[in-house]
């Protein structure tokens, strides 16, 4: 590890903002030694805010029907080989009921941009979930919608919204998406969500085609200034029926390194150890937790549809029941000395006190 990298790590630990150039130098300075040092500091920073707790989110993949054609994604519109499905509101409610029994207090409704899920369908559904389980948070991850729609969903009771920005570099965004999608619009959506009072999650893939350390530095700068409550990052994994089928997957080690940098950039941020990490490497999510992540999202989708929500090849947990997924992840969390808790798991920004 060079003196320069060491001093950048010290600066991060002292909560001093890094410039884009400094983030780029830190990323280029990756080594097993700098990664271990950063991970140790990230764990300390997490402990100060969250103690040894890890938050669970029950993920319900409500539809794989999508009007978009993102070049990396297995459920893109042009993939004719994808067996499409959508859950009914009743099926979704059964998932949340089961999840509640298992101890989940946050439900994440994620899906493609499916025209079936209008505000008229979603608002009553969100109200029903909140009525049945008033102590739960509802998170949506349903892509780009109008400001008016985001407003209605918020009024219906949605608490949080996940919308990965995918890349903070506009030219890189164009490389990953069809011409009709725009980086500006994606960013406008994030700002709209923030102004409506949602707890907002953004995020990006690590190792997506065309990505450079400069672009990653731009992602980190964007996150440092936008200060989302949550940030989801995971390695890019190719899907066999997309234009990126022959591109190499991203790296677990670099994803973990970035998780540590994010934890130190904002110690209060909610950072999931993603399924994509666990897909590339059997202990990938444990490594994510050891690098500073504090959220895991076990799958609550009905088992028969799980393999159909195939964003990338070899996605794990597709053959399991929700209870199995829950138990498996609790054991993985315990194996790295942390504790899964039954709570909504809101961001801890109001106080500087450690979680109990
Ligand atoms: N339609 C919603 C949900 C998208 S799926 C939306 O637009 O937000 C959630 C995330 O999975 C995406 O934001 C993307 O970052 C990630 N993803 C998609 N394809 C992937 C792939 N091939 N490898 C890794 N992550 C992928």
Please give a structural write-up.
With 356 residues, the chain is of the alpha/beta class. It is built from 14 helices and nine strands. β3, α5 and β4 form a beta-alpha-beta unit. α10 runs parallel beside α12. The radius of gyration is 19 Å and the shape is globular. Residues 352-356 have low confidence and may be disordered. Residues 72-73, 110, 112-113, 141, 143, 163-164, 166, 205, 234, 236-237, 239, 276, 311-312 line the site of S-adenosyl-L-homocysteine. S-adenosyl-L-homocysteine (SAH) is lined by residues 72-73, 110, 112-113, 141, 143, 163-164, 166, 205, 234, 236-237, 239, 276, 311-312.
List strands and helices in order, with pairings.
Elements: H1 3-13, H2 20-28, H3 32-50, E1 53-56, E2 58-63, H4 89-102, E3 106-111, H5 119-132, E4 137-141, H6 147-156, E5 160-162, H7 170-176, H8 183-195, E6 199-206, H9 213-226, E7 230-235, H10 252-265, H11 275-280, H12 284-290, E8 295-296, H13 303-306, H14 322-335, E9 339-341
Parallel strand pairs: 1-8, 1-9, 2-3, 3-4, 4-5, 5-6, 6-7
Helix pairs in contact: 1-2, 1-3, 2-9, 3-10, 4-5, 5-6, 10-12
The structure holds S-adenosyl-L-homocysteine.
Residues 72-73, 110, 112-113, 141, 143, 163-164, 166, 205, 234, 236-237, 239, 276, 311-312 line the site of S-adenosyl-L-homocysteine (SAH).
């Amino acid at each position: 590890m060079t003196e320069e990298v060491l001093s950048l790590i010290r600066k991060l630990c002292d909560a001093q903002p890094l410039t884009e150039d400094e983030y780029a130098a830190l990323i280029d300075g990756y080594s097993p030694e700098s990664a271990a040092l950063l991970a140790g500091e990230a764990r300390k920073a997490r402990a100060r805010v969250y103690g040894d707790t890890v938050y669970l989110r029950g993920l319900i993949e409500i539809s794989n029907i999508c009007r978009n054609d993102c070049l990396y994604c297995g459920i893109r519109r042009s993939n004719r080989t994808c067996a499409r499905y959508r859950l009914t509101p009743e099926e979704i409610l059964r998932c949340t009921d089961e999840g509640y029994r298992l101890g989940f207090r946050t439900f994440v409704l994620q899906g493609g941009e499916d025209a079936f899920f209008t505000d008229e369908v979603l608002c009553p559904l969100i109200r029903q979930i909140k009525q049945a389980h008033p102590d739960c948070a509802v998170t949506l991850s349903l892509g780009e919608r109008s400001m008016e729609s985001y407003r209605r969903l918020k009024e219906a009771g949605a608490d949080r919204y996940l919308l990965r920005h995918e890349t903070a570099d506009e030219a890189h965004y164009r490389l990953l998406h069809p011409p009709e999608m725009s980086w500006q619009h994606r960013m406008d959506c994030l700002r709209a969500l923030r102004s409506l009072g949602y707890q907002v999650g953004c995020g990006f893939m690590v190792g997506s085609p065309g990505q450079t350390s400069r672009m990653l530095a731009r992602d980190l700068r964007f996150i440092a200034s936008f200060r989302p409550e949550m940030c989801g990052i995971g390695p890019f994994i190719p899907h066999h029926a997309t234009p990126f089928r022959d591109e190499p997957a991203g790296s677990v080690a670099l994803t973990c390194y970035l998780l540590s940098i994010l934890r130190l950039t904002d110690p209060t941020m909610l950072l999931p150890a993603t399924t994509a990490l666990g897909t590339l490497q059997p202990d990938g999510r444990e490594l994510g937790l050891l690098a500073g992540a504090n959220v895991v999202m076990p799958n609550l989708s009905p088992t028969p549809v799980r393999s159909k929500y195939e964003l990338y090849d070899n996605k794990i947990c597709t053959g399991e029941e929700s209870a199995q997924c829950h138990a498996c992840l609790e054991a993985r969390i315990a194996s790295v000395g942390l504790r899964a808790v039954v709570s909504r798991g809101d961001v801890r920004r109001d106080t500087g006190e450690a979680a109990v």
